[in-house]
Specification:
Length: 272
């Protein structure tokens, strides 16, 4: 059964909770720069994540670990300038919150004050409880992130599906309840079995946004470069490509190159 879609002039953390209550799925994409964010926002995407995946798709690193807090603030500031409607969530990068709750709060405050972002996202559950409490008590909205947490990739040793075993699944469910109880407004679940993700989404009142977590959750998120087909070598099962920009852009660049080499660009009509 289709659900009537409410129009939101500005999406807020409350809007997302209302969407879940009303049965309206949440559409979320990443963006890292002004031009892309403006298009994403104009398309009516509810949430823009300034993800630490910028480390991969913007800077070419193998993992998300190298990106710094200053770099995240730079990307977030660029995105915020483009936004009229979407909620902007900014990842706290690796090393900025895990070990010291006071440092976690300082990092979150810097993002909110310097970038103008609307919320922060942290990876982990019980392990980062004290950092979460500090940030939330300061009035900063927090989106959680459970399942495959890329900042812990060297601990996991692989990007394979998480929580397939009972013990890890039980911990994930417990962590989701903890994040809700602490005051997080939403949770990203990454690369976990669809049945488990659905169970988690049904067990808590805050939205669960999935990436590789099936269709039983309250919304979906993808990396914009992946869904546009720019990162053509990345082919996980959960990824649906909505364009093939790698091919289209390559054709455009080759066409420009050929026109310049043959001196057909610029033409008489393209000169002053």
């Amino acid at each position: 059964m289709s659900v009537a879609k409410k129009e939101y002039k500005r999406v807020t953390t409350k809007s997302l909770v209302d969407m879940k209550k009303n049965g309206e799925n949440i559409a979320m994409l990443t963006a890292y720069d002004y031009s892309m964010a403006k298009i994403v926002d104009g398309a009516g995407i509810d949430v823009i994540l300034v993800g630490d995946s910028a480390s991969n798709v913007m800077a070419g690193h193998e993992t998300t670990l190298p990106i710094t807090l200053d770099q995240m603030i730079y990307h977030a500031t660029s995105v915020v300038r483009a936004i009229n409607r979407a909620l902007v969530v900014v990842d706290l990068p690796f090393g900025s919150y895990q070990s010291d709750p006071k440092e976690a709060l300082r990092s979150a405050i810097r993002i909110m004050k310097e970038s103008g972002g609307h919320a922060v996202k942290l990876e982990g559950g019980k392990e980062i409880k004290e950092s979460l409490k500090r940030i939330l008590h300061a009035g900063i909205p927090v989106m959680g992130h459970l399942g495959l947490t890329p900042q812990s990739i060297y601990k996991f040793g692989t990007y394979t599906v998480r929580a397939k075993e009972e013990a890890e699944a039980e911990k994930l469910k417990s962590d989701a309840l903890l994040l809700e109880r602490l005051g997080c407004f939403a949770i990203v679940l990454e690369k976990v079995p669809a049945k488990l993700a659905k169970e988690v989404a049904e067990s808590i009142s805050i939205p669960v946004i999935g990436i590789g977590a099936g269709n039983g959750v309250d919304g979906q998120v993808l990396v914009v470069h992946d869904m546009l087909g720019m990162t053509h070598e990345f082919n996980p099962r959960f990824l649906r490509r909505y364009a093939d920009l790698h091919t289209e852009m390559t054709k455009a660049f080759e066409g420009y190159r050929d026109d310049v080499k043959s001196k057909s660009f610029p033409s008489d009509d393209e000169q002053y």
